[in-house]
Specification:
Low-confidence stretches: 1-28, 38-42
Shape: globular
Largest sheet: none
CATH architecture: Orthogonal Bundle
Strand content: under 5%
Length: 350
């Protein structure tokens, strides 16, 4: 009798665990025909919804800090990105891809608060083309959201650099305003280079100029923590990238090298700019990051080294964007180097 009750209890617990996983990820036994290859039965719809859910705190923080225009920027991103997606779906006679849900939101949150709406539209069109021209979701080499932002940084650097805004702070903040504050504002990294680094508490809560969704270290850590806890992303890429940047910025800053290495201190380098946001949301893209575990370690280190070099040697406040895109180009090579070799292949080579 006790054995039967124990069996029934174990069966009930297993059913509860399975139901919980299906509620979170909508588990499916269907096999994927193309990348990203999800090895635990997740449906693509549920997988794509988790980064969107994790990015919501940053989006809400953007509204509070910079006003309701943040929502308009997101809407424009989804509208024009959706038009591109619909066009390719009709031409290829394929169903609408869920990738736009993630790309459209992450791209918008990487933009300056006062960015012109026509630039928002242009950037998301380029972002979606960078994915669709390679064959669609699962076939692109570079992270689409970062491609859209990098395109704007390259063709209109002056406009992108001139549309930062001071955040609203205290009380209702930007909830009572549509437009961000059009006040002279230096981003934290530029301020640090001028020996005017803001206090760390301001970087942590987001009371500093910055992109719509990458201003508050707290909100970025909250979203990244959700992705880690739910195992939506692999901790190896994010944490290795963050820790490596912190160690290198601290070490090189103490060495007093020429350039802008470690300006403001290692904590400022981690909290300022889009490093935390990109480490959790962009670098971990399952399509453009390595498949193997060892490859992810190397990818995180490579990306971090590139961030430190671009920030230190060029003074570019957004070296993170180009660092991840450069590292994306090395992903096929990293996978090839780190892919375990079969015993049969070893015997043939012996």
């Amino acid at each position: 009798m006790k054995a039967e009750r124990g069996f029934e209890l174990g069966k009930s617990l297993e059913l509860l665990r399975t139901s919980g996983e299906e509620l979170l990820y909508d588990g499916s036994g269907r096999a994927a025909r193309s990348a990203p290859y999800l090895r635990d039965g997740l449906s693509l719809q549920r997988y794509m919804s988790m980064p969107v859910l994790a990015a919501l705190p940053a989006a809400l923080g953007g509204i509070y800090l910079f006003g309701w225009r943040t929502l308009v920027v997101i809407a424009v991103s989804y509208l024009f990105g959706g038009l591109v997606q619909v066009g390719f779906s009709l031409v290829r006679r394929r169903p609408f891809s869920e990738g736009l849900l993630v790309t459209g939101l992450l791209y918008a949150l990487l933009l300056p608060p006062l960015v012109p709406l026509w630039l928002v539209a242009l950037g998301i069109i380029i972002a979606m083309l960078s994915r669709e021209l390679f064959g669609g979701l699962g076939q692109n080499i570079f992270n689409p959201a970062l491609v859209g932002k990098a395109f704007l940084l390259l063709i209109v650097p002056t406009i992108m650099a001139a549309h930062w805004a001071a955040p609203y702070w205290g009380g209702w903040g930007g909830l009572l305003h549509y437009m961000p504050q059009k006040l002279p504002a230096l981003t934290p990294l530029l301020a640090a280079a001028a020996n005017q680094a803001p206090p760390l508490w301001q970087l942590f809560v987001g009371n500093v100029p910055g992109a719509l969704g990458t201003t508050s270290g707290l909100l970025m850590l909250l979203g990244g923590g959700l992705l880690l806890v739910t195992r939506t992303i692999d901790w190896r890429i994010s944490l290795v990238m963050i820790v490596t940047v912190g160690l290198l910025e601290g070490l090189l800053g103490m060495m007093g090298l020429p350039g802008q290495f470690g300006v403001g201190g290692w904590a400022t380098q981690l909290l300022a700019g889009s490093l935390l946001f990109a480490a959790f949301f962009n670098a971990t893209d399952p399509v453009t990051s390595p498949f193997t575990r060892r490859g992810r370690w190397l990818y995180g280190i490579l990306t971090a080294v590139l961030v430190v070099l671009l920030r230190g040697l060029t003074g570019a406040p957004e070296g993170v964007t180009f660092s991840i895109l450069i590292a994306n180009a090395f992903v096929p090579l990293l996978d090839r180097w780190t892919l375990p070799q079969s015993f049969a292949a070893r015997e043939e080579g012996a």
